[in-house]
Amino acid sequence: MHRIFVALFIACAATTLAQSARAATAPDCFVGSYRLADGSSVDIARSSDDMLRWRKFDGTTGALHPHSDGRWTGTRGWTDESDGVSATFGQCDGTVTFAGQKGAQLHFDVHDVSFVSHDTKLAGRIVMPPGDAKVPVVVLIHGSEPDSALDSYPLQRMLPAQGIAAFVYDKRGTGSSGGKYTQDYSLLADDAAAAVAQARSLAGARLGRIGFQGGSQAGWVVPLAASRTKVDFAIVCFGLAVNALDEDQEAVEIQLREKGWSPADIRDAQKVARAAENVFASNFTSGFDELDRLRKQYSNAPWYKDLKGDYAYFILPKSEAELREMAPQFDWHIPFHYDPMPVLRNSRTPQLWIIGGEDYEAPSRETRKRLGALIADGRDFTIAYYKNAEHGMTYFDVDAKGERISTRYAPGYYELIRDFATGALHGNYGDAELTRPRR
Prior knowledge:
By secondary structure, the chain is an alpha+beta fold. It is 31% helix and 26% strand. The strands form three sheets. It has a nine-stranded mixed sheet with strand order 9-10-12-11-13-14-15-16-19, with helices on both faces. The longest helix is centred in the middle third of the chain and has 19 residues. The protein starts with 5 loop residues before the first helix and ends with a strand. 43% of the residues are buried.
């Protein structure tokens, strides 16, 4: 996910080791995809604390909480509500009883490898479905998260369970890969192109189609990588066709509009947010006078308490001295002014964009408009628009405090990824509104 969300990044970085230690309650052998008695599959992955998370290809998901007698009981989505699901695992024998059905862990052809991009060694893995038939290969591209994809990406198992190979790797500066963490889209696109070359080699005679899938920040990286290496498809999930400054501006607008503030209030708020954005874009070296002036002018405005954006909220409470001192922590080479449209206009790769109408972190209105214009101009793009989905393509409830709590993935979301990788969308995908390329 793009999550420039700087506060989240700090929290993740600070708690990764502690979470890993707590999660060790569940043996590694529990993690995997299982075929259930009814023919469906369920993926079991590590979650935060000592929990596991299950996901099914229809988008349903929940947490599993351990009990001292070996049972695991479920809560719906990311809520605290019981979902009636329970699970028990064998003694690392690859068996599970999930929601009353017996299941067996699926075994894939897995190869861990390392490859080099810009003199940096990256750790990767290909996961092939059983057999010797040709299969599509999906190269999974990171968002801005700082954790290991090799450890945390469930699609590396969920896709092979559907007969599609996956190549996953730890981006530079994360997990088992070398280098320094960065949000330099061009460098990350070169890494993605190197990953495609490695995946082609590993798939060998079984290689069918090959392409990218990535979410959030990968919305900038995937099309750029597809312009630098030959691929058959590109799938962008909850990504953006605007730059990172406009992303924050759109987030401010949608959040304040939903709070009921007037267009005039929103315009004033966006001026304050733009000043904060410009300070961040300067790597905390300039723009402080304008930020201070606007904060002083508007800090008592009734709407000011609701001004958040995607990252403006992180900057607004801090003094110039605090921001300057923090600058080295955020030396990520973020290309705030990067315009993705020239790459998108020149694309010759079929692209699927899956976007949500309730996305605060990557507001979709302008992106949808721009992609629609590309389709009208004859470009090979498909839009799958889920009106009620937020960032991550999840649906949500709103609690008594007005906070969103995710409940499941959008129905049809995973099927869209699978079918586009195989080369053909067909039928309906939940309540997604599809805009297809002109033929």
